[in-house]
Write a structure and sequence with these properties.
Blueprint: E1 11-16, E2 53-57, H1 69-78, H2 82-86, H3 96-105, H4 107-113, E3 118-120, H5 126-130, H6 137-145, H7 152-156, H8 168-172, H9 182-195, E4 198-203, H10 205-212, H11 215-235, E5 242-246, E6 265-271, H12 274-280, H13 285-311
Helix pairs in contact: 1-3, 1-13, 3-4, 3-6, 4-6, 9-11, 10-11
């Protein structure tokens, strides 16, 4: 099917791994200490801030056990209750069961099938790309939908962003990549959004620092993430585009434990269609369905506009 420009503009889906809504307790929750514009949100305090809709979102999906990344990412990208279908919450990497779900039902596949331009923005090392096992859910979703994977050459050329957007971790491992500010990294994503109907990016450092239970580092990372998100919000054309930030499970909000938490997670929405989108979100499984509806509605309206000159329909 030829591509039709969607009316709702382009979409940036930003996953912040391991960010839950915890108690406002500065002894265990770095969100209570970090000086941020966007992340002063807690279990009983969901502020209205600067045109952002924030929704407390269920990550457990009715399945016993602590929510985990692999099933959470699958639920986010497919709209399916992945832990229920898999029989449990699954951590880490994509299993054959989850791979079958994302191969048929991911947002990457949906958008691509209908002519949408999809970008998986994360830069991966050659080792990660070439290994035969232990792939992330997003990597499997991209491969099965024909979405290109980005390597460190793309990162060096400014065409991708690492899951540590500053590149500090890569440089510590000896990779010759540029050190980036949060603002510079965000500008790369903004450029990708302008040329893709759906852009997906995963930020993983929040989950890693939660497992490490390092309060000072957690506060620093949250303040850097806030600068990153602020640049996205300020530089994206919110009259045309939609920015959705969501997490897969809690972790960083409770450093009294190195494990994930049962806390609900924030879904934060800016831009065109945010009110409609926010009203539909109750659980991780609602994200993909809502984005598909916005995409489908935009295509139908655009198609109708393109037909009207031929039919003589005088309506605007």
């Amino acid at each position: 099917m030829p591509r039709i420009q969607q009316e709702a503009g382009n979409i940036l889906l930003l996953l912040v791994d391991g960010l839950g809504l915890g108690e406002r307790d500065a002894n265990q929750n770095p969100l209570a200490l970090a000086q941020t514009r966007w992340f002063r949100c807690f279990r009983t305090e969901i502020p209205l801030t600067d045109g952002c809709s924030i929704v407390s979102t269920d990550a457990s999906l009715g399945v016993p056990g602590l929510p985990q990344s692999a099933t959470g990412h699958t639920a986010l990208l497919t709209g399916l209750n992945a832990p229920l279908l898999a029989g449990r919450h699954i951590q880490g990497f994509c299993t054959p069961t989850l791979g079958a779900l994302v191969a048929k039902h991911s947002l990457f596949r949906t958008f691509s099938l209908y002519g949408g331009r999809v970008a998986y923005a994360n830069a991966l090392t050659d080792f990660t790309i070439r290994r035969e096992r232990f792939h992330s859910v997003a990597t499997v979703a991209a491969r099965t939908a024909g979405v290109p994977l980005h390597d460190l050459n793309d990162l060096t050329r400014g065409q991708a962003v690492h899951h540590d957007f500053t590149n500090r971790l890569l440089r510590a491992r000896g990779f010759p990549v540029p050190l980036l500010s949060p603002e510079a990294a965000a500008q790369r994503l903004v450029a990708m959004v302008e040329t893709h109907d759906l852009t997906y990016y995963e930020y993983l450092q929040t989950d890693l620092v939660g497992h490490a239970q390092d309060m000072d580092r957690a506060v620093r990372l949250l303040e850097e993430l806030d600068r990153f998100v602020s640049t996205l919000v300020e530089c994206l054309d919110r009259s045309r585009h939609l920015l959705v930030l969501v997490s897969d499970h809690g972790n960083i909000e409770d450093l009294s434990t190195a494990r994930h938490t049962y806390n609900r997670v924030p879904a934060m929405v800016w831009g065109r269609g945010k009110e409609y989108f926010a009203r539909r979100i109750h659980a991780l499984t609602d994200i993909a369905a809502s984005l598909r509806t916005l995409w489908d509605t935009g295509m139908q309206r655009s198609a109708a506009r393109e037909r009207r000159p031929e039919t003589g329909d005088p309506r605007p």
